[in-house]
């Protein structure tokens, strides 16, 4: 061979650190000019430089091998160029992604708009759950185009046995032929053309590029540096410059706002620059002059799963199997509307939002995540602080640097933050004046100033974490839910300030009118039976194994909805418990299903004594009847307030009888219980306390 050409999308990353060395050695052995086209770095969407020191030596060896071979390299964007030029003295050419030049230099995107009745968006993401379900519902002609994750469900659905990937709203879209995708380029393009799509939206760069190649306008949802720098290089409208909230805004209105003049005015020059690079390096090419190649790929025979009768039948079978697995429900996302700055500033050649730059340097209060569930506990006060003009951040440090280590379900947390357009950062500011956690004080070990603990529920166990000494010791302030909680916390006589703050997580929900009938309909629940909602905990105090048969027997007279603990879904060692829950329930809600809504679905609640749901459910649903379950006969390890207000069942044989007794004698002391556990305090109270602490 005379030359070697390689394509490397994000080779300059910690993930491909070792690959750089392997390829460098390969290039040296080949002893022919090697050209790498469209290479890029991998960082977060804020262009963090945290990864650079960890890869710079490997980058040097890799680039030395390329240039020593007599070859060259082109880069995806200006951020990659900036990073490489801080590591080496080589000069680099930014080409963007070569695939964008497939249809020649005269590519244009029209600014003309279609009427809403003719608006047909094509959507893309890594998973269907990554887009807000409002988009799918509001635009029933929209189609999700997959590039990898769901191809097996399209080509060989009979091979699917693990349903974890196919959670809501996959089944809804799949059953209505709204998930599309191809293993080959030509059929992919034909589906786009035949479908008469006129807008592309999502976070997959090539999912949007194939639309742009065919003069279909696209909007790119920025999720990382790789996507961001390509969008910026080609001047493609993107979420870094447009304020679009999937949970509240209309996709069609976004489409109307977009303008492609910058893309159109600069594309031909970028095309010419790339062709000149190829020619100056004596690389043979037919870029933009590939009619014969297009005719060739159009002449090939491709397997069409859409018309294959066997595959069509297997599609139907998969829909049935998914229906039984209870993983297809729509889950309403938390709706958070937050204005984002469109002002940008150029610092050291790196474009970042002005708001982000200022916040990174001067954040006053930080909420430090070690578990995705904490997001919902932090948000109400986080949003109130922002309204007060306080520079506040939610911090989601990756497991590698997170103080909790591998415990943090980082990907789930990032998905929730991204879906709801919540601003966050992936590295804490140790100089923040106040740091907040729901856990022990060592979680905030990186912070130098005041440390605050937020309680996230009240349980009846004497060792329940939120009133245990370890949740108080070392903090400047401990926020508790109510008077009884405060009394328990003060018994340790620690210097920590103990302050009541009600239950901020539920403050906004309680004021809303919840439509139980509509919620059940959306979950596919149509029954005349009374509904029992089951809230088991996840550890050794879970009632699952002991009460499984008794709960299953209840299905003759009741409809069982189970809200499994998020750890039961997360932890591999709890897989057997999760399978049991599916077997004994009519419906199992996902671990991240909205807890507030789950509390209002039932007529009767069965709740584990150790679970925080034992107090939250009656707090949220004043009409529900509550029965507590314990796998242990001895109840001495629980607070006496538990049996003061609730009946506890320890013998599964007595369960049905106690439910009948419960229905005949509703809990008349519920209001007294709620007032003792959860104080009725306005959100502004804890917010003003935090602001006061800032000013000291």
The parts where pLDDT drops under 50 for at least 5 residues are 328-361
Mean pLDDT: 88
Radius of gyration (CA) equals 28 Å
The fraction of residues in strands falls at 5-15%
**What is the percent of helical residues?**
25-40%
- DSSP strand count: 24
Main sheet, how many strands, which sense, barrel? 7 strands, parallel
State the helix count: 28
> What is the CA–CA distance across the termini?
72 Å
Q: In which order are the strands of the major sheet placed?
A: 14-13-12-15-16-17-18
Q: What does this entry look like structurally?
A:
With 696 residues, the chain is an alpha/beta fold. The strands form five sheets. A seven-stranded parallel beta sheet has the order 14-13-12-15-16-17-18. Strands 21-20-19-22-23-24 form a six-stranded parallel beta sheet, with helices on both faces. A five-stranded parallel beta sheet has the order 7-6-5-8-9. α1 runs parallel beside α2.
């Amino acid at each position: 061979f005379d030359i070697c050409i390689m394509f490397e999308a994000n080779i300059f990353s910690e993930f491909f650190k070792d690959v750089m060395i392997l390829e460098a050695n390969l290039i040296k052995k080949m002893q022919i000019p090697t050209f790498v086209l469209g290479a890029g770095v991998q960082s977060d969407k804020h262009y963090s430089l945290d990864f650079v020191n960890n890869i710079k030596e490997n980058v040097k060896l890799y680039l030395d091998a390329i240039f020593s071979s007599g070859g060259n390299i082109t880069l995806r964007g200006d951020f990659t160029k900036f990073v490489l030029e801080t590591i080496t003295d080589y000069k680099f050419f930014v080409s963007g992604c070569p695939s964008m030049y497939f249809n020649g230099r005269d590519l244009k995107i029209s600014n003309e708009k279609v009427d809403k009745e003719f608006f047909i968006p094509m959507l893309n993401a890594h998973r269907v759950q990554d887009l807000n379900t409002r988009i799918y519902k509001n635009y029933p002609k929209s189609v999700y185009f997959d590039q990898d994750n769901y191809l097996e469900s399209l080509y060989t659905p009979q091979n699917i046995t693990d349903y974890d990937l196919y959670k809501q709203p996959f089944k809804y879209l799949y059953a209505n032929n709204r998930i599309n995708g191809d293993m080959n380029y030509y059929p992919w393009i034909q589906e786009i053309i035949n479908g008469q799509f006129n807008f592309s939206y999502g976070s997959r760069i090539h999912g949007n590029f194939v639309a742009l190649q065919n003069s279909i306008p696209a909007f790119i949802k920025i999720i990382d540096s790789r996507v961001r720098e390509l969008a910026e290089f080609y001047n493609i409208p993107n979420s870094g410059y447009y304020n679009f909230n999937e949970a509240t805004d209309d996709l069609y209105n976004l489409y109307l706002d977009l303008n492609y003049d910058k893309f159109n005015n600069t594309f031909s020059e970028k095309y010419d620059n790339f062709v000149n690079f190829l020619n100056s390096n004596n690389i043979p090419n037919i870029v933009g002059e590939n009619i014969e190649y297009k005719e060739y790929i159009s002449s090939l025979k491709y397997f069409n799963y859409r018309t294959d009768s066997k595959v069509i039948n297997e599609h139907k079978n998969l829909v049935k199997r998914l229906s039984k697995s209870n993983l297809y429900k729509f889950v309403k996302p938390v709706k958070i509307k937050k204005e984002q700055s469109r002002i940008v500033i150029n610092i050291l050649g790196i474009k970042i939002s002005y708001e982000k730059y200022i916040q990174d340097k001067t954040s006053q209060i930080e909420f430090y995540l070690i578990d995705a569930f904490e997001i919902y506990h932090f948000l109400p006060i986080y949003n109130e602080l922002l309204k007060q003009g306080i520079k506040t951040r939610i911090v989601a440090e990756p497991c590698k640097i997170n103080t909790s280590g591998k415990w943090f379900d980082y990907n789930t947390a990032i998905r929730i933050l991204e879906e709801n357009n919540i601003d966050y950062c992936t590295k804490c500011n140790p100089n923040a004046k106040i740091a907040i956690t729901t856990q022990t004080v060592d979680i905030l070990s990186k912070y130098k100033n005041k440390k605050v603990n937020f309680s996230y529920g009240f349980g009846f166990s004497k060792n329940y974490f939120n009133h245990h000494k370890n949740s108080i010791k070392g903090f400047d302030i401990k926020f508790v839910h109510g008077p009884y909680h405060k009394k328990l916390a003060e018994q340790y006589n620690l210097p920590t300030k103990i302050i009541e703050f009600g239950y901020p997580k539920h403050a906004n929900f309680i004021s809303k009118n919840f439509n139980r009938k509509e919620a059940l309909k959306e979950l596919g629940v149509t029954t005349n039976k009374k509904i029992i909602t089951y809230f088991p905990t996840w550890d050794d105090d879970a009632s699952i194994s002991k009460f499984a048969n008794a709960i299953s027997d209840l299905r003759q007279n009741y409809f069982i909805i189970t809200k499994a603990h998020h750890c039961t879904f997360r932890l591999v060692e709890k897989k057997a418990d999760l399978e049991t829950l599916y077997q004994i329930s009519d419906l199992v809600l996902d671990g991240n299903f909205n807890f507030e809504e789950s509390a209002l679905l039932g007529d009767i609640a069965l709740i584990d004594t150790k679970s925080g749901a034992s107090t939250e459910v009656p707090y949220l649903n004043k009409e529900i009847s509550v029965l507590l379950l314990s796998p242990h006969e001895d109840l001495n390890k629980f607070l006496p307030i538990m049996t003061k207000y609730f009946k506890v069942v320890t013998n599964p044989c007595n369960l049905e009888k106690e439910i009948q007794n419960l229905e005949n004698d509703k809990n008349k002391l519920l209001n007294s219980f709620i007032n003792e556990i959860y104080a009725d305090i306005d959100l502004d109270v804890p917010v003003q306390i935090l602001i006061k602490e800032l000013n000291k």
